[in-house]
DNA sequence: GAAAAGTGTGGAACCGGTTTCCGACACGCC
DNA sequence: GGCGTGTCGGAAACCGGTTCCACACTTTTC
């Protein structure tokens, strides 16, 4: 592989001039610039990123930390981030959050502070105080996707509103016996927006004077989780709710599959609403609260680069858009 | 942030000694080593990765190139790679394969040759000759997950065998009218193992003297894809096959959902078999050919690091394990 | 007891870029 | 003609590590 010295020699100039010609910074005559570019092209020269980073202090890389990569939300966000970074000629360093405490500590104490990236996007994780301090110490701007503390630039939908609006939709249709499929954040890792969705559910019931009807059925935020919980909940004819709010579309879809197996028709006998607008929601005609995690990823990149350029810019909390999408899984109760 | 010079000064030794003490290479007295380590700990010193890379020529990073991240197979492989690299203290640089030719070219000509990583794992992509040349020129070992040409170290299941075994399972149960849900590689991007699965299907039929019964129904390798294709195929009572092979579990699951909506009972009226053992296969009691993409990712890392250590080691083609898992979606025809 | 081998350390070169500093030159202006 | 300003290019320092080499001292070997 050729170095900038090779390019300079071939173009008959010094390293300094070659560097200026290629980067476009500083005075270089048009004639010289052309010669250097020709030489670079002839040698298929590509700058060595480590050398560039060392000299400039910039890595042209963004670190992404997420607990999982194999759930819809995370995969979508990652996809958006990836696409946006590529367009900006940035590289993407991916880090998982290891399950065990020791590995997790190693991530924060050793792997992240190596200054391999110019900024970090944290997706759906809640660093504790010590970890935040490590991040801060790394002197790299941080943008978070998903609910986060106020001291961090972040982007997320209003999960509480999502839970509330979903529930209100059912109340407006006339439902009074509405169950919620999901669990609070501590039960299942990496889904701590779920707490707020539950809060929204409770809030909507309270506003309608239905507080005492609140029924939260423990379910993992996955399709099998929703399936199992719904099978349990709906198995007994007596005491069936007339409507279900899924903590996310995966759970809601699992519930829909359970209804088919149990011979319950949706929406005539049971209304189901989800949150997310998962890629499979349309196939199941699932009414849901739409959010666009891919776009949140793109926005996170935009916000992060903004902060990399202007480290002193005030931090902001962006509320990502979400909207009720009515399909055929909800209707007035019989 | 402190540098190794700070550590050296604090420990009262030279940079050279400090470096040796921390890396463990070369002679350092136990006493000195301890002093250097104490100094490093006191200063929370972490080596600057760009400086280390520049000096050693090693980046401690592996590049991963995959077309998508939001499909089960890819997410699983990525997960495995991620986990294995973390355990080895390697970083992971993720690259998507952009859709448009121009971006794709930029990826190969500019982003990959920056020498940001010591090796590359390509998942489910088929670089053309020019692109392979770029990779080769980067002087970095390459390991591929998924079907690949013989000149590359790779790991994949035997897709042809998977297609054959799935079909044979149905034939042994007594089926003679077996449709295949899927499409050849050119129709849908990033699933070129599918061709070989179709070959296996044809092969099994041929061995049983059923060649003329081959019926391949075009379907995207996704749940909605399988659903739509199955709905179309099964909508008309006449001409229904007695069994279906799904090119992957997503498609097979889509088909199962279609059967429920159409009131067809599985497996009494229709047998369905998939390939992959997707995380949802169990919930649908789907008979399938199991493969473990996460382990393939782990193995790919092992193979790549082996090649990084020993660049001249002979390249190999590893056939990942796969096995028939019989659940309740297949049975003898009526 | 001298030569050889082993151990411990520091100085300096090196990896491959970028950037500062400085000198040379051209030009316009007073 | 002298001077300031703008343009162009090179030498050298620098980023933060690693490693080669020289040297001193200690221990082993014959």
Tell me the strand percentage band of chain A.
15-25%
Q: What is the helix/strand order of chain A?
A: HHHHEHEHEHEEHEHEHEHEEHEE
Number of strands of chain A: 12
In CATH terms, the superfamily of the largest domain in chain A is Response regulator
Q: Structural class, from secondary structure content of chain A?
A: alpha/beta
Q: The CATH topology of the largest domain in chain A, please? A: Rossmann fold
Q: Quaternary status of these chains?
A: homodimer
Task: Name the largest protein-protein interface in this structure.
Answer: A-B, 53 and 54 residues
Number of domains of chain A: 3
Q: At the first level of CATH, what is the class of the largest domain in chain A?
A: Alpha Beta
Radius of gyration of chain A: 26 Å
Q: Let me know the largest β-sheet of chain A.
A: 6 strands, parallel
Walkthrough of the structure:
Chains A, B: Residues 2-56 form the HTH lacI-type domain. Chains A, B: It comes from Microbacterium istanbulense. Chains A, B: InterPro entries: HTH_LacI, LacI/GalR-like_sensor, Lambda_DNA-bd_dom_sf, Peripla_BP_I. Chains A, B: One of its GO terms (molecular function) is DNA binding. The structure is a homodimer of 334-residue chains. The first copy, chain A, is an alpha/beta fold and 334 residues long. Chain A has three domains: 4-56, 434 Repressor (Amino-terminal Domain) (Orthogonal Bundle); 61-157 and 293-322, Response regulator (Rossmann fold), CATH 3.40.50.2300; 159-290, Rossmann fold (3-Layer(aba) Sandwich). Helices cover 44% and strands 16% of the residues of chain A. Chain A has twelve helices and twelve strands. In chain A, the strands form two sheets. Chain A has a six-stranded parallel sheet with strand order 2-1-3-4-5-11, covered by helices on one side. In chain A, strands 7-6-8-9-10-12 form a six-stranded mixed sheet, sandwiched between helices. In chain A, helix 1 (4-11) crosses helix 3 (30-43) and helix 5 packs across helix 12 (293-309). Chain A starts with a helix and ends in a 9-residue tail after the last strand. The model of chain A has no long low-confidence stretch (mean pLDDT 93).
